Amino acid sequence: MANRVFQGVVYQMKDAINRVVGVVDETGTVISCSDLNMIGEVRDGFVAERLTGDCFVKDGCSYHQFSSNKHNDYAVYVEGTDETAAQFASLLAISLQSIKQYHDEKFDKANFIKNVVLDNILPGDIYAKARELHFATDVSRVVFLIRVTSGTDISAYDVVSSLFPDKQKDFVFNISETDTVLVKEIKRGIDQKDLEKLASSIVDTLSGEHYIKATVGIGTPIANVKDLAASFKEAQVAMEVGKVFDTEQSIISYDNLGIARLIYQLPTTLCEMFLREVFKQGSIESLDNETLFTIQRFFENNLNVSETSRGLFVHRNTLVYRLEKIKKLTGLDLREFDDAIVFKVALMVKKYLSANPAKY
């Protein structure tokens, strides 16, 4: 990375000072130079000479060492042994050191955020590293998990990165072939709907412009960098729970999971026990697809018999007959609120057990 950072500056100096300008690493190897043919050469005697001081003259060139990571990793050399060459080398050393520090800090910030999100850094080290990188720890942020379900060869990472170009505030990185993480800085107290709109714009851009189908899980907004790992885990849970209970949704927010989140956190043995207790009189498998569809519409119409019968284009008495049939099979009268709640939860538990989702 240093080679690319330095080469752009050094090459521009070629016409400005009309001298050969280059950068060597600590082994004396030329890694950047205004004369491209010299890149890769090893400067004889450099390693021994660099120990004598930061500034020195060797083989017709003026050298000035500069620091990276608190020790001298590089040196600028300028053609000539006169005072002007020494001044050019000194100025360039200062400039390149600042540029390298800026690029390293930007790269390190992204790497730091990735380690925090993936819980690869000890809590006690988070603040020390944040201070070292001049990273604001008390800014509100939220984690988006973008999962590609189908698409082209275009990288979702590249698309999302282009949507959020401020690399000092927003961080994008891959965690797998299909999963991309966005850590977004937000205003304090932002409305959940605004986060969902932002997620929707990501999904729309991926699908509309690049034919990439994706879903987005949204964690809970956090006010401190140490909680980013928790927000990421919530985004993962949202994604998995949505895959089970909201299969048609492309945006799933952890805060809106409702009772599905509770079911997801229950042990499977407890779920199986609950189903056995609810359906003592008859198995849930005894209900055919038409009956299950009727139950779904009945719940969607808030247990209103008249509205449901109209929506199903059946006579009211036909619906009542179906509900009585369900009561006979299961012992639950869906016209009664308490029984309806139990049945609704049981259906969700059954769906959850059938899906066998990944746990986080």
UniProtKB/TrEMBL annotation:
Belongs to the CdaR family. Pfam families: GGDEF_2, HTH_30. This is Carbohydrate diacid regulator. Residues 125-241 form the CdaR GGDEF-like domain. It comes from the Bacteria. InterPro entries: CdaR-like_regulators (IPR051448), CdaR_GGDEF (IPR041522), PucR_C-HTH_dom (IPR025736), PucR_C-HTH_sf (IPR042070). Residues 294-348 form the PucR C-terminal helix-turn-helix domain.
